[in-house]
Amino acid sequence: MTLITDIRLRRILDSRGNPTVEADVVTESGGFGRAAAPSGASTGEHEAVERPPSEAIAAAREHAVPRLVGEVYAGNQRDVDAALHAADGTDDFSEIGANSAVAISMAAAKAGADVLGAPLFQHLGGTFRGDDFPIPLGNVVGGGEHAADATDIQEFLAAPVGAPSVADAVFANAAVHAAVADLLEERDVPCGKGDEGAWAPSIDDGEAFEIVAEAVSMVQDEVGFNIGFGLDVAGAELYDSDSETYEYSDRSRDTDEQIAYIAELVEEYDLVYVEDPLDEDDYDAFADLTDEVGDQTLICGDDLFVTNTDRLVNGIDRGAANSILIKPNQIGTLSDAFDAIELATENGYDSVVSHRSGETEDATIAHLAVATDAPFIKTGAVGGERTAKLNELIRIADDAT
Ligand SMILES: C=C(OP(=O)(O)O)C(=O)O
Ligand SMILES: [Mg+2]
């Protein structure tokens, strides 16, 4: 363990072309870690606060850097993250910004791993980690807040649940992504890509279901293992709190109709994963849907839980959802993300470690997923900032990090 001797913070580009925070952490014995904050577009209302990067950097330089440099050992993640909380002094990182906090937290973890000469997943999860791998959920068609004039549902996901290895799973998702392009071309549907690299055609959700189901089935036949189908509905973005309805392009649904619609989709497409099917504050509706279909599929809370243990406790008490999305920047530190994963596991909830729609080449989440034995990781299917994580998973499996 060595003392942190320097922290440098800078603005770099994210995948949307927006500025984000990058942190370098240096230690007494020459350990080095670098990490960058991602950024959401369909953010949950209860997430930790992301500040404009230049303000977050200035505030972190003033409040956090003095509490860490010469004071805290890089390998002691709990102390690093406690110092970030103390420096911030709020309960939502609104002073130093969750973007500065998460960049420093992850960079310190990498510096700690560097000092030990261990891969990051092993530093975070211990020596017995690295044999089991998360199943990557690959976004192949998308709309919502991630693309204009595309589907209402935010993400249609390939889920290669039967893949014999993480590399097979990663290539299967890329093949589904390519098959979707072929099917769109056959139908003369022109399209570009959304923020996460998924195809963003101007089609309705019904046509997207047809195309993705066909693409999944074609690739499944080719590869010879089971590929499931999943969704991120991003229900909070569809929900209108004045009318208390979910607003789709072609119709509205009240909460009971929304629950019935999602339950039908689970049946019809044999969905293995459904994220945020309902509004982020409607624990009761989540509980009703989980009651109905929770034994057939994962009902995952993203905006519902925002990687926050208080919100997860509420969900556990009420039987809302059976899995949680883990986004370290939603809560601000790796320790907080770990706490959420541990609480979830103790209560039979699956954890799905996730990227954000605005990303960088940072691959920390691949290590986090392996370190915590998370059953799933959601990190897109193609595109450099997405393949940074997928290729890192392949390297971890190959013992090459
Ligand atoms: C990755 C997601 O999008 P964003 O980062 O925009 O919240 C999501 O909603 O799961
Ligand atoms: Mg989501």
What features would you describe in this structure?
The chain is α/β, with parallel strands linked by helices and 401 residues long. The chain folds into two domains: 114 residues, Enolase-like, N-terminal domain (Enolase-like, domain 1); 263 residues, Enolase-like C-terminal domain (TIM Barrel). Helix content is 43%, strand content 19%. The chain has an eight-stranded mixed β-barrel, surrounded by six helices. The protein has a three-stranded antiparallel sheet with strand order 1-2-3. β2 and β3 form a beta hairpin. α6 packs across α7, α9 runs parallel beside α10 and α14 crosses α15. It is globular. Bound molecules: phosphoenolpyruvate and magnesium ion. Phosphoenolpyruvate binds next to loops. Magnesium ion binds next to loops. Pfam families: Enolase_C (PF00113), Enolase_N (PF03952). Its cofactor is Mg(2+). Pathway: Carbohydrate degradation; glycolysis; pyruvate from D-glyceraldehyde 3-phosphate: step 4/5. One of its GO terms (biological process) is glycolytic process.
In short:
With 401 residues, the protein is an alpha/beta fold. The chain has helices at residues 53-63, 65-68, 77-88, 98-116, 120-125, 166-186, 205-223, 235-238, 255-269, 283-293, 309-318, 328-331, 334-346, 364-371, 384-397; strands at 4-13, 19-27, 32-36, 135-142, 155-159, 191-193, 199-201, 228-232, 239-240, 245-247, 252-254, 273-275, 298-301, 323-326, 350-354, 376-378.
Give the helix/strand layout:
Elements: E1 4-13, E2 19-27, E3 32-36, H1 53-63, H2 65-68, H3 77-88, H4 98-116, H5 120-125, E4 135-142, E5 155-159, H6 166-186, E6 191-193, E7 199-201, H7 205-223, E8 228-232, H8 235-238, E9 239-240, E10 245-247, E11 252-254, H9 255-269, E12 273-275, H10 283-293, E13 298-301, H11 309-318, E14 323-326, H12 328-331, H13 334-346, E15 350-354, H14 364-371, E16 376-378, H15 384-397
Parallel strand pairs: 4-16, 8-12, 12-13, 13-14, 14-15, 15-16
Antiparallel strand pairs: 1-2, 2-3, 4-5, 5-8, 6-7, 9-10, 10-11
Helix pairs in contact: 1-4, 3-4, 6-7, 9-10, 11-13, 14-15
The structure holds phosphoenolpyruvate (PEP) and magnesium ion.
Family: Belongs to the enolase family.
Binding site for substrate: 146, 155, 275, 302, 354-357, 378
GO molecular function, one term: magnesium ion binding
